[in-house]
Amino acid sequence: MHSALSGCFLLTLHLWCPTSSINGSKVFKGASTELSIDYAISKIVCLFGVSTKNVATYAMKKGDNIKMNRINLLFWYVLTVSALFINAFSTPANACTGIRLTAQDGGVVYGRSMEWGAFDLHSRVAIIPRGYTFTGLTPDGNNGKAYTTKYGIVGLDMMKKDLISDGMNEKGLAMGMFYHPGYAVYPKYTKDNAQNSLSSQELINYILGEFATVQEVRDGISNVTVVGVVEKAIGITVQAHWLVTDKTGESIVIEYTDGKLKIHDAPLGVITNAPNYDWHMTNLSNYLNLSMFAVKPKTLNEITFRPTGAGSGMIGLPGDNTPPSRFIRAVAWTQTARKTETAKETVYEAFRILDNFNLPLGPDGGEGSGHGGSTDLMRSTTIWTSVWNLDDLTLNYHTQHNRRVRKVDVSAINFDDFSGKIVHVIMDDKKEQDIKDKTPKL
Fold first, then answer.
1. Which pTM was predicted?
2. Where are the extended beta strands (E) located within 258-405?
3. In terms of residue numbers, what domain contains 79?
4. Per-residue confidence (pLDDT) for residue 361, from 0 to 100
């Protein structure tokens, strides 16, 4: 918002300052003004990042130029700002956050929050057997890569489709999909390569069914082409990037930029959304002052100043819910997390950290907000929070309706024993909080 208002101020100066030309285009001439439409539109696009269509709609074009007096300029300016605000509030916000923690005994835990503000994703626990065959989706339909799972998978699906957004296989390889709008650009789809292609929505299904370790993912992911396919439920291509973690704690982030695959090492085990992962890592350099230790007292002119309370080491920690700020907070809190002996104990710490990222419903609450879907049965933009114990192979989760943690024991599942079908388990038996009445009978 601050940058938008600054842009408005700069635009006003350009429109009202008594100068004769800007970039060679005549701007002011006496009481009336000749403003090049190309310059005006390009200036607004540069300042606000909106499309020329949104701006030009409000322009009164006459020939190649717009003739305006100062009243018309003010009127046009107000309409332009209105259009910019409409554009800003119609853009989905981004809000998923993923983390990795390691216990003192080497046990690894991966967890994430799932935000979607447009409608309930109706996620289920999906159990995919070994030997299950998928056919990849392409822009032409179900004519993509056919592949058969080597490993059983437990995951959380989306929109009652067998599309895993977060999951782990029986070998302890875990993977999460995170929204990456404006930055994910997939390889161009060609009919000649259809048999080796699948959609971004299906990448987790493929990787968890095919690979056991992060190194195997590094070596094998280039054997499949990930293409953009419009998801009918939201009407757009699913732009995403992914965090992959195995039992050793090795983590990578998978991105597609300018049509090319990029694999980033993720030593800190944190991911949010846009922009690209390497930008987030560079941005950490702006927050090197953050510490788990209190600021030391300082004496100025014989007066000693002390912190007013706990938390002074984190002064400057960004508090908004933009992806860059959440990335900084996730790194700060995972790096200063409580020391835990085992992965089982680390699950508690993961939930404590992730619960800080719960977001409300609202026009800027989280991913998808502003898409206009029904939120009548929703209590939060954070639909569920999952924590995967890669050591003892368990899924732990709670939801927007019930904060009680529920568990699925992946190691107890015989992935050859359910007739080659995907089994679905509802996440909430009842969409209400499980409250135990502790009132004593006196």
1. 0.77
2. 260-265, 270-271, 298-300, 303-305, 382-389, 394-399
3. 2-89
4. 78
